[in-house]
User: Fold these one by one.
Assistant:
Number 1:
Amino acid sequence: MTRRSWAEPYKIKMVEHLRMTTREQREAAIAEAGYNTFLLRSEDVYIDLLTDSGTSAMSDRQWAGMMLGDEAYAGSRNYYNLEAAVHEHYGYKHLIPTHQGRGAEHLLSQLCIKPGDSVPGNMYFTTTRHHQEAAGGTFVDVIIDEAHDPACEHPFKGNVDLTKLTALIDRVGAERIPYLSLETNVNMAGGQPCSMENICATCALCHEHGIPVFLDATRAVENAYFIKHREVGFADRSIASILLEICSHTDGCTMSAKKDSLVNIGGFLAVNHDELAERARNLVVVYEGLHTYGGLAGRDMEAMAIGIAESVEEDHIRARVGQVHYLGQRLIDAGVPVVRPIGGHGVFIDAAAFLPHIPREQFPAQSLTAALYVDSGVRSMERGAVSVGRDAVTGQNAYPELELVRLTIPRRVYTQAHMDVVAESVIDLHEHPERVDGLEMVYEPQHLRFFQARFAVATGGRLEHQLPKSERVSTN
Ligand SMILES: *Cc1c(COP(=O)(O)O)cnc(C)c1O
C-alpha cells in the first residue's frame, strides 16, 4: 500500500529566527540554570519541547481576530463570541473566562471543596491537585493501574477504575466527595485517553451518588481523536460531535485554552448548574477580573473563540497527533524506552529504564533533561520524582512509578526536520547513557517545586544501586 502522510494542513507565512548555540554555551547555560530546564532563557534553546502550553502558533484568522479586540471593561463583544464557541463545541451553559486553566481550578476548588473532603481524579495534575489541597481537600487517584505501567499498550490508559472509585465512595461517603475531576488525555500518564464507554460509566456511577463530574477538558479534543480511531462505533463520527458527547456526560469543565484551543494565554470554567455559575461569577471578580473578561484582554478571547473552532477541524487534529506519533515511532524503532502507546501531546521517555545507572535519589529524569539540552539545545521537562514532590504525610521524597522525561510538541510550530534532530539526539544519548550525570537538589521551593528547584551534579555515587521497586511509592 502506498504511504499517505499526515502532512500539515497549512503553510508557513512568517518565520521566527532561532539562535544556534555551541555545546560550551549550553554547558554554561544549564549550570547557570541550576540544571533545571524551567530556568533556562528561551533564547538559549533551539527546539523548545518544554511544554505544549501556550506555545502554539496562531493562525492568520486568529491574528486577524486579535485586531477585532473590543477592550471594553464590561460586556466585550469578544466575550459573547467566546461564549458562543464554548457553547457550540463544549456544550456547557455558563462560561466564566479565566486567565488560564489554574484560575478555573482555583475557582472550582474554592467553590466546592470543604476541608476534609476527598477529590477523586484519574491521576493527579500538578496545579489541579495543588488547588484541591489548598481548599482543604485530599486528592485520591482512581486511574486504572495500567496507567502506571509505561510498557502496557492499553488503548485507554486514562480510564477511571470504577472499583477504586466505588471503594472511595464506600470509605468516605458520597457527601464528602464534592466532585470527581475527570481529565481527558491524561497528561501525567503520557497523554493517555479515556474511552467514551468509561466516561459514560464513571459519570453514571458518580451521578447515582449525587456526585458531580467536572472535566479537565484541557486536551479533550486530542482525546476525541483517540476515541474516533480506537473505540468501536466512532470511526465515522466527527471530532466535534465526539467532543460534544464527552462533555454532555459531565457537569462542567475547567479548561486551559493554552493547549487544545491554540492560544498563547487563556482558560475558562464552564458549568451547567445555574447557582454554581452565579457563585463562580461572584468569585471570579476577586481573583481574575469581571466575569466577562476573567483576566483576559478582549483580543485574547477572540483568538480563543477562533482557536476553539480550528481545534476541532479533522485535518488539524490528524496532523497534530500525527507529528507526535512520527517522533514517537522513530524513538521506538531505535529501541528507546518510551511510554506506550504514544500519547496525544508528547513523547514520554522512561528515564528510569533509559538510565539504569542513576539511582532514583539522583533524579534520572531531571538528569536526562539537562543532558539532552547540552547535547542538542532541545528543552524537555521532567515528569517524575521532582514533579511529584514530597509525601504530604511523611514529608519524604515520593518516588512515583513513572520517572519520565516529556518531549512535548507545540501545535503547528515545528517541522518534521526538527523532529528528526530531536530523535537523533535522544537516540545518541540512549546509546551512550554514561554521558549523563545524576543530580542532587540544592534548592527546593515550597510549592510546585519542579518549576524553580535548583540542582548540582551529584558527587560520586553514579554507579550506586537503583532504589529497589518495593521502596518506591506510587503517585496515589
Ligand atoms: C496545563 C494544564 C492545567 C493548568 O492550566 P494552565 O493554563 O497552565 O494554568 C490543568 N490541567 C491540565 C491537564 C493541564 O495540562
Number 2:
Amino acid sequence: MALDISPVKGRSSLRVVYGACPHDCPDNCALETHVDEQGRAVSVRGRADHPVTRGWLCAKVNRYLERVYDPNRLLYPLRRVGAKGSGQFERVSWEEAIAEIVERWQKISATYGAETILPYSYAGTLGLVQGAVTDGRFWNRLGASQLERAICGHAAEDAVLLTIGGRLAPAPDMVLKSKLILIWGSNPASTSPHLMPFLRQAQKNGARVIVIDPVRTLTARSANQHIQPFPGTDAALALAMMYVIVTEGLHQPEWLAEHTVGWEHLLERIMQYPPERAAQITGLASETISALAREYATTAPALLRVTDGINRHTNGGQTVRTLACLPAVVGQYGQPGGGLMYSTSDWLKWDSASVNHGTDPACPTPTRSLNMNRLGSLLTGEADPPIYSLYVYNANPVASAPNAGKVVEGLLREDLFTVVHDLFETDTARYADLILPATSQLEHVDLHKPYGHLSLQYNMPAIEPQGESRSNWDVMRALAAGLGFQEEWLRADADTVINEVLTASARTQTTLQGMTLERLQQEGSIPFAIPVEEQVPFADGKFRTPSGKVEFYSEQALAKGYDPVPGWVAEVEYTPYKPASELQASDEPMPLICAAAHHFISSTFGNQPTLKTKEGTPTLSINPHDAQLRGIRSGQLVRVSNERGWCRLIADVTEDVRPGVLSTATVWWPKFSPDQRNINWTTSDRLADFNGGSTFYTNLVKVEAETEQDQKGGE
Ligand SMILES: Nc1nc2c(c(=O)[nH]1)N[C@H]1C(S)=C(S)[C@@H](COP(=O)(O)OP(=O)(O)OC[C@H]3O[C@@H](n4cnc5c(=O)[nH]c(N)nc54)[C@H](O)[C@@H]3O)O[C@H]1N2
Ligand SMILES: Nc1nc2c(c(=O)[nH]1)N[C@H]1C(S)=C(S)[C@@H](COP(=O)(O)OP(=O)(O)OC[C@H]3O[C@@H](n4cnc5c(=O)[nH]c(N)nc54)[C@H](O)[C@@H]3O)O[C@H]1N2
Ligand code: SF4
Ligand SMILES: [Mo]
C-alpha cells in the first residue's frame, strides 16, 4: 500500500495521509492524519480544502486519536472462559479463533442449515468495503439469514422514495440561497455540525430558521423560532399548514397540476385538519400553525430539512411522507434553495451486484430476512428455525437496540454461539463466546459515499493495525478461506474490491465520470461529476416515481399495504396531548424521546473518557410542572419504567421540554451505569408503519423519584 508522503509545512518529518470519517453522520468529513517517523499518528484534522469539512472536525472526531490509542482497545482475539456475560476471557490466536468459528458454523449448517446463522451489523463504519461489501458478499455465499437493516431511517427512506422517488438532497451550501429554512425533527448542531456555518451565514443574509422539535435542542437555541409540537403529531401539523395554505389560496395550482398525482385525494385529507383541530392534537396554538403556514407559503425559496430522528415513531413513515408533500403544495421542489433536504444518498448508487455478489451462482438462494429491530425477540423464540449463531460487527446491540433487556436475555442462551468483532469490549462483546479485535479507520482502506454532500472520500490507512486487530473485510476473507470458498470476489483485497465496484457503477452513474481509484488515492476527496446547474434536485421537473411526478396518491404505497394517501394516525403507544392544567396524576405515563447525544454517535464514543465527561451523566429532562407533581428536583435520581423494563437517570428539571413530554440524550453504555442498563431497557421493538423501521421514540414511561433506600438497593 503506497502512502501519501506529502510533507506537512514546516515539519518535513511528518507525513500527511488523506482519509474519511467513517461514522454515521451526513457530513462524512475529509480527514488528514499527520504521522511521524515512527509511524505514529500525531494529529487528525479536517481538510481545509473540502467544501463541507472546511478545516474542522466535530467535538467527537477531533479526539479520534484518543480512540485509536485508547489503552482499552482490543488487541487480540479472546475466548470466553467464564459464564456468559461474566466478562472472563483468555487470549487466543487468530488461527484458533477462525478455526473455532469455521468448525462451529460447519456443524450448525450441517445440522440446522446456514440460515440459523445471523450476521448483525449497522453503523460502526459507513464505508463501502468495511460496511456494505462486508455486509453482503460472505454472508450471501454462506447462505446465512439476511439482516433487514432497519434500525435507523428505514421508514423515512421509504416515505421519501414513495413520494418523490429519490433521496436527492441539495449540497449543504444550497441553504445560502434559502430565505426560510424549516428544520423539522432534526438536530444538525449535534448530528450534522457542518451544516451549521451555512445556516448561520443564511441567517446573516436575512433568512429565517424555524426549528420544529418537541425538545429545545442545541439547534433550536440558535433558531429564529422554535415550535414544540407534542411528539408523534407532526403529520397533523403539516396537514393543518396545508389547510391554511389552500384555504387562503397560497398554494400553487399550476405547479400541482403539472407535477403531482393524487392532489384531490390529498386535498380531501387536508380538509379534515383545520388548524383548530390540529391545535388539539399537537398542543400548539392554532395561530402558531396558521402563521407558520403563511410564512412557509409566502417566503421563497423555502427549504425543509428532515432527517431520520422524526421517523422513529410507529407513525414515522406517514409522518415523513406527509412532510415530503409540503414543498410540492407550495411549488418549491426544483427551486435553488427550496424543496426537501433529506439525504444525498441517491446522487450515486453503487452497482449492487458488484457490491454483494448475491446473484452469483455460488450463492445459495437467499432464505429468510430478519429485522434487526427484533433482535431480542428473534433470539428468544420468534425466529423459526432458531438462531444458533450470531456474528456482531459494526454494532453494539446491547446498548443501541430497542428492548435491550430482551437482547441480553437472548445472548445468555447457552445454545447460541456468539462472535463479536469490535475495537472495544462493548456490552455486547461481554456476552460473546469469541471476541475479535477490529482496526480503526486509521488502519484500513475504505471508500465513503456521503449522505449529506456531493463528493466521494477515499480512506488511506495512516498507521499499522494496533495489536493484532483486523479489518472487517479481512476477517470475512479469512472466514471464507477457512470454509473453503474459492471465489475470487471473496479473496480480493480492499482496493481491488473498490476498483471493481467503481468500474461496474461507472457504467450507469454519470456522477462517477473521471473518478478512478488512482485519483481517489492521490486526492483523497473528489466532487461528484454533476454540472452546477444539475445540482438543484428536480430542477428538470422529473421525479423518480413511477408517474414521474410527486405522488400524493401512491399505488406503490397501496401495494405495500399502506394508506396510499399521507395522513396522521395516532401512535400505537399513545397518550393524547393534554394542557398542563389537566396533567394532575403523578403516575400518568409520558412520551419519552431518547435522541442523539452531542458527544456520542449512537453508543460509539460512549467509552471515551473525555467525551463521556463532556456529555455528563444520563439525564432525564422533565418540565417543572411534571417534576413538581412527582416531587422531583434537579440532580435527583429518578426511575423511568414501563412494561418492557426500567432504568435510572438523573433529573434535569427544565423548560426545554413542555409539560407532559420527557427527553433524554442517548446512547450511554450500560456497563458504566450502576444498574448495568440504559434507556433502551424501556424502548420498544415494535416496528414502524413503513418498511420495518424502528420506533425508539414511541415510548410511554412512568417517572418516579427514587427514595434513598431505592438508590442503595436497586432492584
Ligand atoms: N452527535 C451525534 N451525531 C449523530 C448521532 C449521534 O448519536 N450523536 N447519530 C447519527 C445517526 S445514527 C443518525 S440516524 C443521525 C440522526 O440525526 P437527527 O435526525 O438530527 O437526530 P435525532 O437526534 O435522532 O433526532 C432529531 C430530532 O428529532 C426530534 N424528534 C423526535 N421525535 C419527534 C417528533 O415526533 N416530532 C418532531 N418534530 N421532532 C421529533 C428529537 O427531539 C431530535 O432533536 O445523526 C447522526 N449523527
Ligand atoms: N435509545 C436510542 N437508541 C438508539 C438510537 C436513538 O436515537 N435512541 N438511535 C438508533 C440509530 S439511529 C442507530 S443508526 C443505531 C446504531 O446502532 P449501532 O450500529 O449498534 O451503533 P453503535 O452503538 O454506535 O455501535 C457501533 C459499534 O461498531 C464498532 N465499530 C466501529 N468501527 C468498526 C469497524 O471498522 N469494525 C467493527 N467490527 N466494528 C466497528 C464501534 O466501536 C461500536 O461499538 O442505534 C439506534 N439506537
Ligand atoms: S462525525 Fe460527522 S462531523 Fe464529526 S468528523 Fe465525522 S463526519 Fe465530521
Ligand atoms: Mo442512525
